[in-house]
TrEMBL record:
Its main location: secreted. Keywords: Cell wall, Cell wall biogenesis/degradation, Glycosidase, Hydrolase, Secreted, Signal. The keyword Cell wall biogenesis/degradation applies. It comes from the Eukaryota. Residues 1-28 form the signal peptide. It comes from Nicotiana sylvestris. This is Polygalacturonase-like. It is found in: Secreted, Cell wall.
């Protein structure tokens, strides 16, 4: 197994190296040339759109270039299809308006819609979510909140070197898209910020996420219905809720999740490690062919977790989850758990989990007062184990 202790320490190298990628060969579509001002005050939404439309309509591959400075933009949609390959290169910082309502009433802040052959290099985007989070905590009437950057109905996408800060809700969202690669990104929201997923993927296929540091108030990476053929590797996750498949069973007629690999990653003081979660309600959904391998857990609550009775506010219908969880492998998972149940496989009483494999697991419980051993909890879960499994397998 790789030396995952180096992942976090290498973050400066990752991002300093990515700077080499953001020097454009052509400055023809510099947003400043279209009227944008990097003074941190002037609304530059219209100039950004004009630069995009010019680049998108070009018959030759071209780029939109955001130079040094701080640019304020309101909700904006960059629409395709474009005539040729297009790049969006950010050297400076893009920020949301100070009033959280300006973007909070929209589902999206920065949206790429129906764009193929797109590369986004960054740069920093800052949604300034603090006011929105305060509204959510106060119980007042608040807007629904905006995702920071979204790829919707896109194909052949690269997102590299971006730093996303303080998203109102999700930092990066990938929906109804294919052949997407996310690499060398840095995502940071405070640990107490509500529902600030790092990267959310849904109804998408052939997605790779790698070499990234994600610190959030919710899932570092969440994988929703309709996701398939995903590779997630070399991720530094924490704080946050870990990497989750789900929530599933939001509806009865729900697309399944399959062929997902999470590998070579480190989880530090996260609420969970790798989690599969579904609501306890009927559904024809499924999660199958899932691989979790070469993972390091550092003081993580529930490092290995299947929760098919997910009910965060205790207002669930208390039925059995119809989601079929099968063919799930946990291989070479090591480290420490902050809860005694280091392995918790809480499956549906109506649709038990099948084909679960635990191989070469070594997890200990961090309890310096009582020195209690870590435990494995299984309900309605069936499978097998191989090699040394600590705590002891229930199969």
């Amino acid at each position: 197994m790789a030396n995952f202790n180096t992942i976090l320490s290498l973050q400066l190298f990752i991002f300093s190296s990515s700077i080499l990628l953001i020097i454009p060969s052509c400055l023809a579509y510099n947003v400043v040339s279209f009227g944008a001002r990097g003074d941190g005050r002037t609304d530059s939404t219209a100039p950004f759109l004009r630069a995009w439309m010019a680049a998108c309509s070009s018959a030759k591959p071209n780029n939109v270039y955001v130079p040094r400075g701080t640019y304020v933009i309101r909700p904006v949609t960059f629409t395709g299809p474009c005539r040729s390959r297009i790049e969006f290169r950010i050297v400076g910082t893009v920020v949301a308006p100070a009033d959280y309502n300006v973007i909070g009433g929209s589902s999206f802040w920065i949206l790429f819609y129906k764009v193929s052959r797109l590369s986004v290099y960054g740069g920093t985007i800052d949604a300034k979510g603090h006011g929105f989070w305060s509204c959510r905590r106060s119980g007042h009437s608040c807007p629904p909140g905006a995702r920071s950057i979204t790829f919707l109905w896109c194909d052949n996408v690269l997102l590299s070197g971006l730093k996303s800060l303080n998203s109102q809700i999700m930092n990066v969202a990938i929906d109804y898209s294919s052949h997407v690669r996310v690499q060398n990104v840095r995502i940071r929201s405070p640990s107490g910020s509500p529902n600030t997923d790092g990267i959310h993927v849904e109804n998408s296929r052939d997605v790779t996420i790698k070499d990234s540091i994600i610190q959030t108030g919710d899932d570092c990476i969440s994988i929703g219905p309709g996701s398939m053929n995903m590779l997630i590797q070399k991720i530094g996750c924490g704080p946050g809720h870990g990497i989750s498949i789900g929530s599933l069973a939001n509806s009865y007629n729900e697309a399944g999740v399959q062929n997902i690999t999470v590998a070579n990653s480190v989880f530090t003081k996260t609420q969970n490690g790798v989690r599969i979660k579904s609501w306890a309600r009927p559904s024809d959904g499924y999660a199958k062919n899932l691989m979790f391998r070469n993972l390091v857990m550092r003081n993580v609550g529930f490092p290995i977790l299947i929760d098919q009775n997910y009910c965060p506010e205790d207002n669930c219908p208390h039925q059995g989850s119809g989601v079929k969880v099968s063919e799930v492998t946990y291989k070479n998972v090591k480290g420490t758990s902050s809860t005694q149940q280091a392995i918790k496989l809480d499956c549906s009483n109506t649709t038990p989990c099948t084909g679960i494999k635990l191989q070469d697991i070594k997890l200990s419980f961090v309890d310096y007062r009582l020195r209690r051993p870590a435990l494995t909890y299984c309900r309605n879960a069936h499978g097998r184990h191989g090699g040394t499994v600590i705590p002891k397998s229930c199969f």
